[in-house]
Specification:
globular; 17 helices; 2 domains; Rossmann fold; 8-stranded mixed β-barrel; TIM Barrel; 5-stranded parallel beta sheet; alpha/beta
Length: about 400
């Protein structure tokens, strides 16, 4: 079986050797670089994981991050540093903003157990095997055919109540049942839909699937709220409130059974028009959620302007809150702020029980993530809620 490949970049040979020894015991094939400039000259994009020290003479870790961004590096990135924790934190944010696959950081000196736990918890398909399973994004013509042939399907991920009350909510997440490649995730076709003007049509497909599924659940005795992500182009339609009102009426639903999730990016495109549409949707009884909260440039302004009923804390804060005091403070502040504004708070990206307990102590209303459930077909939702309502 092929081993995942790890590269450690650290000018201190003793530290590089230490990382190598831990990584080998965690099942990695390891290569070391004591000179970041040499790494940049020789790197062939073969690493599954890169462990990068920030403080190095000559070429430093920030320059390496810039280099990795420039070559569209898809390796998992771990940052290490003995410098000021604030610098390490800023470097993490830089890597995340540059869309690198940042997965963790450690402040020097760190223990064997810390690094081993981090490496052992990574989910990796070695690049030496990746060519066997890699799928090129389907073409826009294929996507057009998929919309005509009803190949798009919707999966549902539960949101779990963290208080004593058992709140039943799911998020609708689109998938593509491709006739050749099988089930495809949205990362392989959403960008194509946006680039070629198909995202609005795709959004309406998801809405109709979700409402039809909701009606089926209701007939089985399951009362539930369904949240659907709204595209930026759909939010530009001034008659959207009327269309949504007609659609819920067609499926025999109440507007309050639907939560429309809106990102700050979508809001910023046409502020006045978006505010017009969102206000009228709220007046009709639809719930509105601001998604990926905290990642935009005007989060507080949006809360003040638009009539949101829910805040979804972005996973980048939630997944870091166990080890990053600043992320934990941001999560706590958002929860306090949301509750003062009479909004429900949902935390995305919950993957550990420790994180769940911390969110519960902070009185977060709901959590969503792989700790509870992965997205599932609609016909599995009733059984999932029936089982978990008891536990």
């Amino acid at each position: 079986m092929s081993q995942p490949r790890l590269i450690v970049i650290d000018d201190e040979p003793g530290m590089a050797d230490f990382v190598r020894d831990v990584a080998v015991r965690a099942g990695f094939d390891v290569e070391q670089f004591h000179n970041a400039g040499l790494f940049m000259e020789q790197y062939s994009k073969r690493a599954d994981v890169i462990v990068l020290d920030l403080m190095m003479p000559g070429v430093d870790g920030i320059e390496v991050i810039r280099f990795l961004t420039g070559i569209d590096c898809d390796s998992l990135l771990i940052l290490i540093s003995g410098f000021d924790p604030g610098v390490l934190h800023s470097a993490q944010k830089l890597a995340t903003e540059q869309r690198l696959n940042f997965v963790g950081s450690l402040s020097k000196p760190f223990r064997y157990e810390e690094l081993h736990h981090l490496l052992s918890g990574l989910s990796i398909t070695p690049k030496s095997l990746a060519h066997q399973i890699y799928i090129d994004p389907p073409s826009v013509d294929e996507l057009r055919e998929a919309l005509v042939n009803d190949e798009l399907v919707v999966y549902y991920q539960p949101k779990v109540g963290l208080s004593k009350s058992f709140i039943m909510t799911v998020e609708a997440l689109v998938r593509w049942q491709h006739p050749t490649h099988g089930l495809l995730g949205p990362d392989l076709f959403i960008a194509t839909a946006e680039q070629h003007g198909l995202i609005d049509e795709l959004t309406w497909v998801v809405l109709k699937h979700a409402m039809a599924q909701h009606r089926f659940w209701r007939d089985q005795g399951l009362t539930i709220q369904v949240s659907v992500n709204m595209s930026a182009s759909t939010l530009k339609e001034l008659d959207l409130p009327e269309h949504m009102g007609n659609l819920v009426q067609e499926y025999g639903l109440e507007p309050s059974q639907m939560i429309l999730e809106v990102t700050e990016t979508a809001l910023m495109q046409e502020l006045t028009r978006s505010l017009d549409i969102l206000t009228r949707l709220r007046m009709k009884g639809f719930y509105l959620s601001i998604d990926d909260f905290g990642t935009g440039y005007s989060s507080l302004v949006q809360l003040h302007r638009a009539p949101f009923s829910e805040i979804k804390i972005d996973r980048s804060f939630v997944m870091e809150m166990e080890n990053d005091p600043e992320a934990a403070t941001i999560v706590e502040t958002i929860i306090l702020l949301g509750h003062r504004l009479n909004m429900k708070i949902v935390a995305e990206g919950v993957e550990t029980d420790k994180c769940r307990k911390k969110l519960a102590r902070l009185e977060c209303d709901q959590a969503q993530g792989y700790l509870f459930a992965r997205p599932m077909p609609g016909n599995e939702v009733v059984a999932w809620f029936s089982k978990h309502r008891k536990t």
